[in-house]
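Data card: per-record layout.
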Amino acid sequence: MIAEPALQEAPDRLWQQWLDWAATQGRARPAAPVFDAIRTRVWEGSEYVAQAAARHPAEFADLLDCGDLDRVYQPSDLASRLAGALAGVTDEPALQRALRRFRRREQTRIIWRDLGGLAGLDETLEDLSELADCCIREALARLHDWTRAELGTPVDPANPADVAGGPAREQHLLVIGMGKLGARELNLSSDIDLIFAFPAQGQVSGGPRELTNQQFFLRLAQRLVQTLDNQTVDGFVFRVDTRLRPFGDAGPLVMALDALEDYYQSQAREWERYAMIKARVLTGDPPAVAALENLLRPFVYRRYLDFGAIDSLRDLKQMIAKELYKKGMDANIKLGPGGIREIEFIGQAFQLVRGGRDPDLQTRPIRRVLTLLGQRGRLPAVAVQQLDDAYCFLRLVENRIQAYRDRQTHLLPADDLGRLRLARTMGCADWETFAKDLDGHRQCVQNQFDQVFAAPPTEPAGLDPDLTALWRGTLDDARALEVLAAARFTDPQAAWQRLGTFRDATARKGLSTRGGERLHQLLPLALQVIAASEAPDLALERVLRVLESVVRRTAYLAMLMERPMALTQLARLTGMSPWIAEQIVRQPLLLDELIDPRRLYTPQRRHDLEAELAALLAPIDAEDLDQQMERLRQFAHGNMLRVAAADLTGVVPLMKVSDYLTEIAEVAVARTLTLTFAHLARRHGRPAGLQGADTGLLVLGYGKLGGLELGYGSDLDLVFLHGSIQPGAETDGPKPISAEQFYNRLGQRMIHMMTAHTPSGILYELDMRLRPDGNKGMLVRSLTAFADYQEHSAWTWEHQALIRARPTAGDAALAERYGLIRHAIICRPRDPETLREDVRAMRARMRDNLDKSGRGRFDLKQGRGGIADIEFMVQYSVLRWAAQYPDLAFWTDNIRQLETLARLNLLPGQTTADLTEAYKALRGAYHRSTLQDQPKTVPDDALLPERARVRGLWQELMGD
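The structure for this 960-residue chain is written out next.
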């Protein structure tokens, strides 16, 4: 048992040395009791501070006099103090000396506030990180100037001199802070991990000899490392570690951005993604900083859910554990079981997996990450609280260990005196009490770590060994067919042949070792899941099609192994719908949607859709059209899949499916308009003389979109109208164009954003032919011209189309004016016989050109008694009676138009009820054909009563 006086002996001796100095200087000892209590704790817990005060008594006296020991620093305080400390510095020896003395002063202050209970953990980590940032920035600024004076100016080869013949654009060193420095979580005696880069290769200008930018920045980086890292009589500023750079110690100390990009795209190892999560660019010109961040982001955060990262982090943790075991470092609170690194791994695993799809997770501080994971339900609230408590406790322990002698160590003391000292700095009376608290936190961390990183079993419990043998090809044909028949395959021979074809095809693809291992683990599990599905034969073919499309992308194989629920949903849904299988084959990103059944079978409404799309687009640069298009497609396709999943399983009724699909399209179109308008406005300014209050553009949805009856794979019938009353007036931006030109470019750009093929396909097929004058007409017309056309030039069929046309995106003020125009046109008095003839003639023309009935099949839309007949009867009725009954002009969808006709009793008997039921039945069949990837026809003997009733009602109403 160590007595307390043993802890005080050396600290008291050192304090007496400072008091002796103070007496010779005529300084009074601080008299406040609270000072004595804090001083005693600090001197007991930090030999470094006690010795610094004894050896440099004037520095400590200055800290007492200025009041910084009691002051919480504001954001600019450290920078202004360092600037003052470096005033008058003109060479490197003086710079090194001043930096070290400044660091000693601030380190003393930080430890005093930490051990004295004056600062919380967040303040301590922030002050230490800001100290490092300031020292790096101030040192680099001076070293850059001195190196430029000696060697010349590194210039941008793309801008060697400005257009006026002035000085060339100078380049500056980019310093990337990694690890705890990058996350602003620096501990009391941490080294700093740095990577150096510069904007571009080129030549140094104005120097005594020819030199490349690479050589200039290499020399500058070396000087910076020496300035910070060299051990002198004044100590060091920060220990610098540059081994995290590309190729480690074997790589160049500094690299140009294009070389960095090439490395991270083609040669970087998986652990470097993990390391880059916390990377933060500390210095450099803003454009270069942005370029560096943009090249690192896609390396770290993949656009799919990357479950392969969990496997890689699991391997990295095992490697660290083996190394610790070799070195006997089980007392390491950072790397040992239940240590700080395990907490960071938990947070960063979720970041690597989900950060590409959830930009909020692209943050550095681990406590913020844990909070987000709790808010999103990725970790239970209790787990988040336990991990956060453990992190704060362990970081305090780490700081207290390092505060003692300013040494970078994470080992718990082994001697009794050291243990008692540490326990007391943590507020515990003895080591046993402290150890109990420590073990409790570490156990919680290890439990959570084991849950997150539990490896999927190589042979899952309950897996039929025959299915493993079946995949590996070790069964003879007869036994294989028996196993497949027992697994409920109705055609075992076809299944066996298909499995063999898949096995041979994957063998020829030359998978990586890791990819082959994952495939061999996954397939027996997949066969078991397929066998348990409702239609094993269909599911096998379709699941194997999906796997063929992703087999070279091992992250997806890892995801299906790590999340067997996703595999179950894949077999279930593809077995029910070849359309879903085909969508996933074309866009494997959709596999991400299968992970969470709660989300998969819960389609979102408009508010949540808008929030999701905003989050997806938030991290994308405003000028990055390609990524904007990709994210729009990911949003739409992912949400369509969720609607289809809910539809197939009966979670949502048929008549609601179209509502969900319509809202997805509306949100996508509205955001496309916002993005394209912002892009053009930045370049050309805003058009003048608008009738609207916003963009001045209105997007009308016709057909299924306008009628709230969108289906899977439906194209969008759109018409663009603008509100400019001065089409020749110029925009007010740097490159002015006429309003007419502006809106035509806006329409063209919207079409491009929605129809261009990207890796995720297209957003929607568009049909623009319903605009005034069809394909011959202007792409975007003014609302005034549109009204005139509808009033004087439009055909009857165009007024029929107008019934289903409604604003789907754009300017609210224009939408209101459009509503008045549409109402006036629809409610115009018409001669019933002329109207009937026009509608009947148009329907005959459509049927002649589009009806695919024949050879024993009936065209659900265009056949006699089909969907189009119902739509035309409704449109005829609306146009015939709207002048007398304006309520008919209110709705744009068939169902509510029929309800209005029924309420007004305008059609005889059961006509509206019969049309409604027939319409729902025909639409249901049409809809199911889409999900089964079949032509929109049914056998001639299908839906006979409904079709007969529609034909009879057509005869009664239209006389044909």
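Known properties of this structure: The chain has a mean pLDDT of 90. Residues 178 and 639 are 37 Å apart (CA to CA).

See the next section for split statistics.
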